[in-house]
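User: I'm curious whether this sequence folds into something compact or stays loose and floppy. Could you predict its structure so I can see for myself?
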Amino acid sequence: MGINGIELLGYAASIMVALSLTMKDIIKLRVLNFIGCTLFTGYGLMIDSMPVVLTNGFIACVNVYFLLKMRRENRHH
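Assistant: Here's the prediction. I'll summarize afterward.
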């Protein structure tokens, strides 16, 4: 039995989130985590799982918020 596209998306999302947690640089961590959460949101939509969609959509937004905040702070220094 092979892996279908939806499963592949779920694995890709898992790998991105796991990889993000190995980053020392907080910006790289947040960017990779954002990508993983975005993939998980798509995965959740495909498997019709609102808990996956809502949780990962929220975390993706948190990552964007902090990335924009860090960008603004770097511009003012």
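Summary: The chain has one domain: 5-75. Helices lie at 5-20, 26-46, 50-75.
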